[in-house]
Design a protein that fits this description.
single chain; 2 strands; Fic-like fold; two-stranded antiparallel ribbon; elongated; 377 residues
Length: 377
């Protein structure tokens, strides 16, 4: 395990540089949050595909009358965005933070036995619970408060940087071992893991640090459960095996995602094929395809950059109409309000499925089932 710890510390402290424009990197980063949310719910039996969720989010922008499974994913995606906004290097993860994570996880979901919600959102369980298909006997509900108080103290205990990931791994297992809530424990602990990684500097909302920790667990949920169960006896051997599993997975994810810092690779292998795919499926016109390709090539474009795509003598009004149509479809956006230059947008639009499809083909997405390609198309 020492080699894994040293290797991850080296990866965290490396000087990141690359040729991928920020608009592409952060667009992909937002997509990874979507993937993280889908996979986290898939671990718990929600079989909604990435493509199905993306389409539901795109077509129901007002987020009303959502299906329970879609709402379950949306809750996690919104919680991830809150974590990126709020978590800093000095953030204290106290009881209220953890209870709020749970509240966000189960918000608006069915609290019945067959639902994904909880009768006590944002509160510890007040009755004994059992985990299906598990030999682990959960602590009594009367012990949950004290156990969580001890865990929260450990979460915020300063440790050497080289031990930070080991601590995060231990916290992940011990949280599940305690099972503090009536429902939503897995979703809550994966959010907590994301938050702790962000606090430790492995995820950076303003920079090029990107990590999808749930991919480690979601690539094979049976292995995830087996490794968790192996540490349930609280032995040093079981804890070590769990930590090695989690740290090895994080190492692979960091190395894999770093490929996205190569601008030529990301454009040629991910973005351009997604645009061509949208045109092939008749989701966008030839003119729209060509305008989007110019956005990819030049990164930031003005209306004049599109002129050669139109017949000689085409009015400014006609070009502006074409630009506005792309904006209405959320295919391009301005870098800031009022700006007169545009950049490609990749989230919740007609390109999203194609981009996810190419990320999947290039090995960036974990399979929702071992050995089975994701249904992203």
């Amino acid at each position: 395990m020492a080699d894994l710890v040293v290797g991850l510390e080296t990866l965290r402290n490396r000087e990141l540089s690359g040729t991928t424009p920020p608009w592409i990197f952060f667009g992909v980063k937002n997509l990874f949050q979507t993937v993280e949310s889908v996979i986290s719910t898939h671990i718990e039996g929600n079989n909604t595909t990435i493509a199905a969720y993306v389409e539901a989010a795109r077509s129901n922008k007002k987020r009303v009358n959502l299906d329970e499974k879609i709402k379950m994913i949306l809750n996690l995606e919104n919680a991830l965005k809150d974590i990126e906004k709020e978590v800093k290097a000095n953030t204290v993860f106290d009881k209220s933070f953890i209870l709020d994570l749970h509240r966000k996880v189960v918000d608006g979901l069915d609290p019945s036995q067959d639902g994904e919600g909880d009768t006590r959102p944002g509160a510890y369980r007040n009755e004994h619970r059992e985990i299906q298909n598990s030999s682990h006997i959960l602590p009594q509900h009367t012990d949950v408060r004290d156990l969580m108080d001890h865990l929260i103290t450990f979460i915020n205990m300063p440790v050497p940087h080289t031990m930070e990931l080991v601590k995060i791994a231990i916290v992940h297992h011990r949280f599940v071992w305690i099972h503090p809530f009536g429902n939503g424990n897995g979703r809550a602990v994966r959010l907590l893991t994301y938050a702790m990684l962000a606090r430790a500097g492995y995820i950076d909302k303003d920079g090029a640090r990107l990590l999808d920790p749930t991919a480690v667990f979601g690539s094979n949920k049976l292995t995830y459960y087996d490794k968790l169960a192996g540490a349930d006896d609280l032995s040093a051997q079981g804890a070590t095996a769990w930590c090695e599993y989690m740290l090895a997975g994080l190492t692979q994810e960091i190395q894999k995602i770093d490929r996205l810092l190569d601008g030529d690779f990301t454009k040629k292998e991910i973005i351009v094929p997604a645009i061509m795919y949208a045109h092939e499926k008749q989701k966008i016109t030839k003119l729209e395809r060509d305008m989007l390709l110019i956005c990819v090539e030049q990164n930031l474009v003005a209306a004049s950059d599109f002129r050669d795509l139109f017949p000689a003598g085409t009015s400014h009004v006609r070009i502006s109409q074409a630009i506005n149509k792309l904006k209405e479809q959320n295919l391009i956006e301005t870098p800031r309000p009022g700006a007169r230059k545009y950049m490609l947008c990749m989230n919740n639009n007609l390109l999203t499925t194609g981009i996810l499809r190419k990320l999947d083909e290039n090995g960036f997405l974990p399979p929702l089932q071992p050995g089975v390609t994701n249904q992203t198309v």
